[in-house]
Structures are given as structure tokens and as C-alpha cells.
């Protein structure tokens, strides 16, 4: 990082802590307003919230205020400590996930060598939180919901991981920055104008990833765990007020972070296509850095990007994230719910074999080319 | 594979609806700011024309959830012709409709033999307290101003014209 001022460790730590909240809460609030409130209303030919603030933009503030006022109810026979801790465990997984998302060449909380592996590992922590919530509530609906959620999340964790493996093979690295570099500097049969976003070569993986994300988030075609018509609200049934809000934030913030991950893995991350870098000189004043980037080789390439990408990167990422979450919510509010056995069969008999075939084909082609 | 086109078509339906709402506006009405014109013979609130009521109790007895309360007493009215006997009539003391109970079936309006009850399309009479939804006969009488002229039924219906009394 080439900054004029050097910050002490505690200063960067506080800054990173604040930015983590920004990176989790702002996209969550934005997508909840844009998609959950507005887009769904438009799908149903209504306008959605219109009273709180211009076009109802402050509706979420009102909702959060409402939740914060509510009584924090713990069921009489619940395991109180586990019951109270469960939402924090779910939220913990969300915050751990955002750590490895790269928003720019330097704008990343932690740059692990095995970043994507870390992301997939910590995303499973939410299963623990959901099981805790389901078991500790001492309610049959919660227990059913928790167990269904556990079964579903474990089943769909596999296609999620396997879909990523294809990308990792192609990029030749588990590091998130290297995956972005590989896509920006890559070429499709010698044509490098748009780089090589893996959505083209890994399209099957991309579709599998999106479906698995939809299931991981228990969004509607896969919302058996919280099926409101049979399980009230699944593992969230007994929660009220602030703890429910934590689950709510966990659900929607994780949707955004998975969208961030998908845009890093498949859409080129914070980078813009090379032809944009070529035609917009004002975008990247340090041309030497960019020239180096364009001459870099894929697969663990060392490319130095213009520091301007630390500013531009978050905007590019937000755009890609909004596009992907649009698809997530579009699917969510279009399809009816799967039955439990259909849901499991779909994961084990369709997605996982398909992902394995995708890995094999990717491996063969990687060696061939 | 017959499933796939339907799955795609479903996404098209919802996306088309988004485009329709954004370009042509929503089907819903933003209520406090703009109000819908009620359809003909809309059942908003029941108005009472007190002069026509004979306290016969038919409406009260036919009411499925017993939300009409009527009290009356017999009294003597002056004779129709000079030198005649004073007539015995029912005088209405109390006529309450509890709109917290009313289910807007309209049976009371249908059964009234003396055309004392009328439907009014007015619907804005919500109250902070549920007890205030009990409208007494003064309040019910005030609704008479909002009763529109009776619109005839559509073709093919049993022709019944109801004359709305005007003060």
C-alpha cells in the first residue's frame, strides 16, 4: 500500500472494524429496500412502502426502530444461553465472510492465501447457529425448521464448494486477488478485450453456485426450513425484537456477501474489463501500473493495479452485487417452494453430479490448453 | 426437460410485471392521498331514515350476528281523520348498529319492509376505540346525507327500485 501516511495497527484495526459494519449493513439495507420492499411490490403491481421518507426509503429505519422496541422474549423451557447466543453465531458467520471479499487491490480486510477456502469454511458456521436456535427454542416448529435447515445447508454446501473448485482450477489459485487478476488479465483465444470473466468458461459452475447460494440462504424455492405455511417461521419462530433483527440482518447481509463472492469468482471482481482501462485514461492515471497489469500472466500472476481501483473497486463490486442479488430476489419471488424430498433429490442427484462433471471437464481442458 | 421453458416463462411473468408497474403505474391506490370511487351500491355504512322505522324488529332479528339494538315503546298518535280514535304507533327510542360486529351482509337493508335502512358508500368511520363503533340513531341518521340515488340493477336482474327519501 503506497499511502503517504502510515497508520498504527490500532488505527487500521478500528478503521477496518467500522468498514466491516459498512460493508455488511449498507448493502443489506440497500438491497432490502430495493428488492425486498420495492421490486417485490412492483412484481405484485403495487408500490410498496411510500410514506416513510421519499418513496419509502426510510421504511427500514422505521422497521428497525419497531423491532428494537419489542420485548426480548425467551420461551419458558428454552435453553436460555444457547437461545440468546444463536443469532450472534449466525451473524458471526456473516461478518467472517465479508473479511476475505476483495473490494480493490488493497481494499480488503484480510488477504488470505486461501481466501475462497476460508469463505466457504466460515459460511458453514451459520448452520451451527441455526441448529442452536432450532434446538434451544424448545418448540416443535423451531426444531423441525432447524433440522430441515441443517439438512438443506449441508446438502447444498457441497455443490457450492464444487462449483467454486472449477474456478479455482482455472485461476490456479485460492487467493481472491489472484482470481480477480486471472480474470482481468486472461484472454479468450488470444482476445483480451474483456479479459476472461469465468462466467463464460464456468457458466455451469456459475449457475450451480447461484442455485446453491439460493439454498444456503433459504430463499424461496428452497425455503423449507422457514416455510411459513407449515412451520410458522422455522428456527426463527420463538425469536422476537432485536434477536429476530439479528437473524434478519444475517439472512440478507449473507445474501449480499454471497453475491460479492459470486462477482469475484465469476464476474471479474472489483476490476473492469481491460478495454475500459484502455479507453479511459483518467480512470487510471498510473499507466505504468496498468501496463504491468495487462502484461501479467494468468495463474498466480503478479499484476500491480492502479491505486484508483481502491476507490473504483467498491463501486464496481456494488454494481455487480446489485445485479446478482436482483437475480436472487427475482428467483425468490417467482417460484413456489420445493418439497423436502424434491429439495434433497435436486442437490444430491442433479447439482452434485453436474458439479463433479464440471470439475472433470475443467481439469481436462486446463491441461489440454 | 419440459420443465425448463415453464421455469423461464415464470421469470418472464414477474419481470414483465415489474416493467408494467414501473412504466404504467401500480394497480393499487395510495389510499390516504387518492381515493377510489366506490362501485354502484357499495356497502360502506348503513344509514337509518328514522321517520320510516316502526320498530318492527325485523332487521334486528334477521341480523346474523345480532349487532342491531332496538328499543321502542307504544304511544298514541293523533287520529288520521277528525273525530277518529287516536292511533297506537311504535315510537323508536334506541336504534344502534355495532359496526364492530357488523359483517356488512345487508340482510337488514333487504328485510326492512318500510324502507328505513339504506346503504351508503361512505367507509371512513374508523375509531381509535372499538366502543365508538356503536353508532346510535342520530349518527345513523346523519349517514342519510351520503346515500346516493338508487342505481337500477343490471339487465336481467329482478327490477326493484328503491326511492331514497330526501329531507
Structure description:
The complex is a heterodimer of chains A (369) and B (167). Chain A has 369 residues and is mainly alpha-helical. Chain A is 66% helix and 0% strand. The longest helix of chain A has 35 residues. The two termini of chain A are 35 Å apart. About 5% of the residues of chain A have low confidence. Chain B is α+β, with helices and mostly antiparallel strands and 167 residues long. Chain B has a domain of 116 residues: Alpha-Beta Plaits. Chain B has 4 helices and 5 strands; from the N terminus they run αβαββαββα. A 3-stranded antiparallel sheet of chain B has the order 2-3-5. Chain B has a two-stranded antiparallel ribbon with strand order 1-4. Chain B is elongated. The model of chain B has no long low-confidence stretch (mean pLDDT 86). At the A-B interface, helix 1 of A face helix 1 of B.
- In CATH, what is the class of the domain at 31-146 in chain B? Alpha Beta
Q: Per DSSP, what share of the residues of chain B sits in E-state strands of 2 or more residues?
A: 15-25%
Order of helices and strands of chain B: HEHEEHEEH
Q: How many beta-strand runs of chain B?
A: 5
Mean pLDDT of chain A: 81
Q: How far apart, in Å, are the first and last alpha carbons of chain A?
A: 35 Å
Question: How many helical elements of chain B?
Answer: 4
What's the overall average pLDDT of chain B, rounded? 86
Radius of gyration of chain B: 24 Å
In terms of DSSP E residues, the strand content of chain A is under 5%
Q: How many beta-strand segments of chain A?
A: 0
**Number of helices, counting only DSSP H or I runs of 4 residues or more of chain A:** 15
- Which regions of chain B have little confidence, pLDDT < 50, spanning 5+ residues? none
Shape of chain A: globular
| Helical content of chain B (DSSP H or I, runs of 4+) | 10-25%
The best one-word shape of chain B is elongated
Sketch the major β-sheet of chain B. 3 strands, antiparallel
